[in-house]
Task: structure prediction
Amino acid sequence: MQHKLTTVACIIKLTTHFMQNHDKLKPMPVQIRENALLARIAAKVLRSPHMAIVMKRTIHLHNTCMKDFMQNRRWVRHELKHIEQFERYGTLRFVSKYLYYSMRHGYWNNPLEVEARAAEYDDSLLEKYQCTEPEHAELS
Ligand SMILES: [Zn+2]
Result:
């Protein structure tokens, strides 16, 4: 009995190990969409000339191209943190939390924004996700 339990524990441990390694080897694809309507609306609301806004696994851009965006590593890491938050909470919970926090604390002090700003130097985000243009992302 003891032996069987140990075997089961070993299998679970190995499976977890391989799953974690698998995650590390295959970064999750993130789509980047240029000239996106959603980002244009957000830019207008927040009165910002340039805009990147995350919806699920897509980063929507306004008034900035993918090349310029990708060169701004701090900005990329910030938006990837929002992608991670989307995964953590799911779309409905993330969007409602984000709107609620924005109303309660304002944009700058929104805890989800505070967390994203704190992650702007976190290089592990660049390994965890792979940014691609929409047509490339559809192939993979
Ligand atoms: Zn943000």
Q: What stands out?
A: The mean pLDDT is 88. The beta strands are 28-33, 51-55, 58-62, 129-132.
